[in-house]
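Researcher: Re-running this chain for the archive, since the previous output was lost when a drive failed. Same request as before.
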Amino acid sequence: MRWNYTPVHADSVAELVRATGTTPVVAELLLRGGLSEPTAATRFLTPTLATLGDPFLLANLDAAVDRLLLALRRKEKVTVLGDYDVDGVCSTTILVSLLRRLGLSPRYVVPRRAEEGYGLSRTSIDRALEAGKPDLFIALDCGTNSGEEVAYLRSLGVDVIIVDHHRSTEAPAAGALLINPHVNPMAGDDAWRFLCTVGLVFKLAHGLLKKLRAANDPVALSIVLKDYLDLVAMGTIADLVPLAGENRIFARHGLRVLAETRRPGLHALMGVSGLKSDQGIVPSDVSFRLGPRINASGRLADASLSVDLLLSEDYNFCDATARRLDELNRERQDIERGITERAERYVEEHFLGSSGLVLFDEDWHPGVVGIVAGRISRKYNRPAIVLGNEGDLAKGSGRGINGFNLVEILGACSACLDSWGGHPMAVGVSLKKTRLDEFRKMFDDVIRHGRNGDVTEPGVELSGWIDGVQINEQLMAELEQLQPFGMGNPEPVFGVRGVRLRNRPDVFKEQHFRFAAEDANGRRVSGVAWKMADRLPPVGPVLELAIQLNWNYYNGRRMLQLELLDWRLAAGQNSA
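Model: Regenerated structure tokens:
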């Protein structure tokens, strides 16, 4: 594995330390993230809710608020249709909950992936209309490209609001109030241009409450908007949008609200996920524990189950539903494990020389291939599309890597595709099976050109170098200023000098190992390495480690832990 490190000029680090009062380690990380201006760096380190922008600066949000106010005054029938992923589920939960508190009884519908496909499809609309035609139809996390479907609703006399963050792959739907900063960019909207739908719904809720509070509405005055930030943080983190600007504010404060949430459904979900809120909630808890369980219902069953859970105040229902989601997630994991193993074999046997990977199998479930795509793209360090069987179509998802915009790549391949959409790091794709070979070649060619023909081995990007003696609780406190880590604000990877192992690593589950590293002063710190049991570091020689730092909670104690990504012998050392 290659270790890549681009030094930051020492004078720039010292200047930022003086201007912000932070430490050299944090200053280097800020500079590496492009935050060289002291005011921007300070704002990044102390993100506050007070700095959120005026919601009415978003195009069409004012008009959408007025339409909702009209619905409230007339006690209209409202239907909300949200996508079946975490972003869509949390967006639906926020809007339905808020409208209920304000006196409406909105019906909510989540597309059934297997029967209705993605988003605002005609079949999902028809099912939504079975309970009667609404006065207002609100589509969340979908609908930007649904011109025909919007026209159908308008022909029935139904008003339409769309809140979405997906890029437009065709002319945006006409006849609807569309809140989508990518379709309607505004000058100075950098802070919120990359909000996912749940962030945009929060802005819509903020705007609605502002107007109601200005009119001294007693219910609006009693609502604490901050209480919805737990759902905003979950959708934001799970949807792989960059954690910068207002996304950072939402994630930072939302994770704290999530740790103290009063929602019975989230308490039940944390219970089956093995989370203890008194230890705090971090992005990986959303990405790998809460998010997959919410997603599992949409992938294998009916995603409305997750919305039901998040809206419910019935503890018995929440406990039973959380257990059901946990069962679905285990089923999803079993399916995913088999697909991943076969996908890796395909790559090893047929596509190791490819710059971009397009994998398909008739037996693969389209509902879980997105997770597999993420695993494949990370393992082979290249964009990956993984497709399953859906009749005459190959349908699935893609995951990207830094430096490659999947939306732009698919745009260059659109002649092969029936449908596609998403955002730079995660997309959905559908095409006729007869065009798979054509698409595979085109996808590979576009990426190969972008890489100038270079198919490289996976590498580790170092955020900085530190000595083993610097690994302590003070360093962890410094790094916590930069939390939460995620897309656009990656968790730092440090190169560590001057450590050695005195005892052989302890292998467990035949794949992983634990170890104790010793710094130059003889102080030990524990670590873990995942899926590296076939490459144990030697005992005795001085080593260099590529690591991430985290807290390990065990038996009520919190201990500093290294997560080893790679190791190598220090210069002049040998393992003999």
